[in-house]
Amino acid sequence: MDQAIVTERPPFPPFTAASAAQKARMAEDAWNSCDPYRVAMAYTEDTIWRNRSEFFTGRPAITAFLIRKWTNELEYRLIKEVWAFHNTHIAVRFAYEWRNAAHQWFRSYGNEQWEFTAAGLMCRRQASINDISIAKSDRKFHWTQGTPRPADYPGMTELGL
Does the pTM of the predicted model rise above 0.85? Predict the structure, then answer.
């Protein structure tokens, strides 16, 4: 896939409460697709990432990371919620559920700090994430894997996360 064609992605900064929430939901929907190429298009070609203890730069590195991630994190489902925003920055908290090849389920909790260019592409992402093993019966995210969370599905706050 040609990843050089995306040059802007609305909504654009400076963010309002509504546009920050829209940006977070767009990111959530893309990540829930588990399509690494789709996700990578939201970032600048030279974006800088920290994900847990990994550091990398650029769309090809993001794509490779996501391919590896979703090879190991099966039945992935994610919810994001805006924590704060200001001008070109958005902070989100999130949780996602997944299982490994041995059918052990996990809920991963995290916080991300995002920085955007004037064109609405993310140029920096820093994520801190912790994993907790859960019983299958403790799962809270029950929509069809690979699709967006339904509009009427509760968010993190409503689910007590």
Answer: yes
